[in-house]
Design brief:
about 0% strand; globular; mainly alpha
Length: about 90
Amino acid sequence: MRAFTLEDLVQVLGTVTSDAVDVDEGRLDTDLTVLNVDSLAMVEAADRLQETYRLTIPDDDVSAFRTPRDLLEYMNRRLAEGSGVRQ
């Protein structure tokens, strides 16, 4: 499966927030709340990711995401491992 890119991340976050999410390489370590991505938006993002990539993302994992880098690395690790992929 292909990598989960920064573009993919921006697209997903942009669909779950009312404001445009400005994430680039320089802001990967910025707290998601500073980027106007609250806990509800993260739950919605996880739902979309689960549907799109046919993954199961546990709630504990979702609550651990603090930065865009956390989510980017998590998704790439899960996709590479094939862990949690639903058939």
